[in-house]
Amino acid sequence: MVKGQDKFRVSVAMATYNGASYLREQIDSILQQLGDQDELVVSDDGSIDGTCSILQGYQEQDSRIRLLQGPGNGVKKNVEHAVLNARGRYIFLADQDDIWMPGKVEQVLQVFEEQNVSVVVHDARVFAGEDVQKVLMNSFFTFRDSGPGIMKNIIKNSYIGCCMAFRCELLKTIVPIPERIEMHDQWIGILGDYFAGKSFFLPQVLLLYRRHGDNQSAMTHYGFYRMVRNRLVFLFYFWKRILNLGRKNS
Hints:
250 residues; Spore Coat Polysaccharide Biosynthesis Protein SpsA, Chain A; nine-stranded mixed beta sheet
């Protein structure tokens, strides 16, 4: 965690890799919601498609943007690198290719203040490619039967990273993110539930979630054996983290 955390309100942590096609639209939708005490932290994992040039151009015009060289170890470690360099009291996760809807930041911050939770997840509308009118589903929450609960989200994960924000205090619990688990969003959400209290699922659609050929996450179900394997691996590292943190606090 970077020193001077109390000087910032919101940090948006974005992991990029070859995202030039849709990056400008996403950055524009984020920056218009950030104030002077906020920042956009971007960890780029070695893009070769012009992503870095786009980011450098924005950085030259806006001091709220910080561009970092990623660790080069895949999406989970790139996300981890971004959040570890975040200096805000509230950390919002962002993909490189979505669109934030107006009011997202303020509505999520209001939930943090009113509900006293450590993790907030909001709904999203899923669309295809470049056409925001080509809606694939109006509610990700409906598709995943989203809601809080540790066992519920181990059995069927309904956390989606691009729709998540969490308090900075959770960092000491969630990092390091295990390399062998499927994705980081389930890890952050469930550890937040276990160690810091119930997550809040906000039913408002506050993001347009873009689906295209290069998405890192899948919308389809895995085969039975892979699903079982993923859950067993998650439970192994989840239990290991519980034991490790228990020893530190004893």
